[in-house]
Each structure stands twice: as structure tokens, then as C-alpha cells.
Amino acid sequence: MRIRRFIVLLFLVLLVHGTTAVAQPEIHYSGQVGWNEDSATMTFCTSGSMPVSKEGFFWDVPSTVKRIVIDENVRFTGGFRVLYREPTNPLHIVGRHQKTSVIFGTNEEAWTARQKIAENEKWKYSAISVIEDAVVHVSGLTVRDPRGYLISGYANKAVIHVDSCTLIDTRSGNNNNSDGFAGAAGSSIRNTLISTADDGIKIYNDITLENVVIEHHRNGAPLQFGWGGESRIVNATISNLTIRGIDPEHRYNMAPFTWERGEKSTRNVTINGLDVSTGGQLYDEESGEWVPLGLLELKPANCEFNLKATAVQRHGLPLGMNRTTGTIQLDELPDRESSSLKD
């Protein structure tokens, strides 16, 4: 009788295990992959590529996959698209080594323009694009030279958390549309370097930034507060933000904090620790002339911008242009107390 009961229990255990294990999802990748059915983890073990076609280049990550790992010294050429996931089923995209675990896009400049991708569709060709509502954690890797944006999610609940990453565009040209980051309310970026000749971070929804370094190229704003189309109150909480100007001619199309267009919107920005080392000239589109670069370029007069920043280092950078309503409060440190963030 005891033996019979043991056999029945063993059968039930095996049956339950068999029904919960997840089969390896299909993926057309030229390199070697590993699949752990117990943890639902897909590991990219060797460098390789997704198909080069316009859509086949991107893997629609099944909701059954809980974790994607890119091994050390592995370059994954392709992109990840994240569709709807329950809030209790977040996706983790993890690199084993921040510098050598790489998601790579293309050497081609202005890929989205050459492919005639509509302006409001370009974000869907990001290295990581959260197409529908989902929570995604990205950590410990490099995203380089994407076909479209670097990391983005424009769905209402596309919440993205980035930690210990390098988001860069190393190609020449100013029309790669490789904007750095956009996410839904509740997103965050920590301990990360962003360097791209487009907008670094879109402050279109509530966001937290901590220990972030943004390199200021000629094209694009390190922090972009709006291109129009958003009418909402947004709160940004920032600590230890460094912005470094790197244009060799010290000429820029946008200021470090830029708000191009907006309609009856509010941006509330709180910063503890801001170090901005950029300067030179700003191209004024209205006059067609180069004018002194300032910290701010806030254009929409019917919008409100409130900035309260402590431990600020501007290194002589003027305040800049502000046509919005609201208040600007800067508690500045002497230059000698400046302390740059480490990459």
C-alpha cells in the first residue's frame, strides 16, 4: 500500500513539473543560445545576428520568457520587442558584462529615414522597444548603434527600469534618430551613460534618474521635455546628473534642458546634484543665428516649468532662454567643489 501511494505521489509530481516547464521559444538567431525551462531564461551564448529583414531583425519576446541573458563578450545583432505582459510577469534583459555584453543595431546611418519609417513609428525599431503595456528591467549591458531609438516604450504602461548600462551611438551624422530613452510613468534610469546625437532622455512621464551621465552632442537635447502632443503634469526626480558637452566646435542645436513644443503642460523637476560642463553657441532657429548657449531652452509660453535644484555646478554656463511660466530655483556650489560622476 505504501509503495502504491509513493508511485501515485511521484506520478503527480512529475505531472505538475511537466505542465509548468516552458518549452524553448522559437528564435531565428545565427549564434548559439541556451534555454533554461525551469527559470524561463534565454541566454545568448555566442555572438550572432537576427535576420536582416526590416521586421525579422526584431524578436517578439514571448510572455513565457522571464529573463534574457547576454553572455560576456557576446554581441547580439538585432532588437527585442516586448508585447503585453501582466504586471506580475516582468521581463529582465541582463548582460553578464556591461562593456562586452552588447545589443548592436547597424553601421548604417539614418536607417529609419532610408527605410521611410514614419516619424511616429521610429521608436518601434529601437534596440529594445516596449510596444505594449509591460514592465521591463534592463541591466549590465551596452546598447550600440540601433536601427532606431536605443530603449523606448510609448505604451501607457510601458514601465522600463535601466541600471548600469551604456547607451551609445558611435556613428557619424546627426540624423540617426537614435534617441536614448523614453518610458511610461514610473520608469527609471540609474548608473548609466547615454551618448547619442539625438535627445538623451524624454521627460514626457514621471521618471527617476540617479547617477546618470549624458554626453551633449551637437544634435539633440540631453533632457527633452516635449515636442508637442503631451498635455499632462510630469514629475522628474533626479539625483547626481552630469551633462558633458563634447562637440569639438562647441556648437549645439539644443540646450541641455530643452522644451521644444507643448500645450498646457507642466514639468516639475527636482534635482539634488547637477554638474553641467558644456558651453559655446546655440543655433537659434527663429533668427537663423548662433547665440550663446545656456542651461535652458524652454520655448512653449503656455506651459509651466518648475525647477528646484541643489548642489548645482554650471561652470559659468548662463541660465538661457525661458518663455514658460513657473519658477527656477538653483542652489549652486562653487566650482572648486565640483565632483564629476564616474562612468
Automatic annotation (TrEMBL):
Keywords, alphabetical: Glycosidase, Hydrolase, Signal
GO molecular function: dextranase activity
UniProt enzyme class: hydrolase
Signal peptide (UniProt feature, chain positions): 1-23
EC number, UniProt record: 3.2.1.11
Transmembrane segments: none
Superkingdom: Bacteria
InterPro entries, A to Z: Pectin_lyas_fold, Pectin_lyase_fold/virulence
Keyword Signal assigned: yes
Hydrolase recorded as keyword: yes
Protein name per UniProt: Dextranase
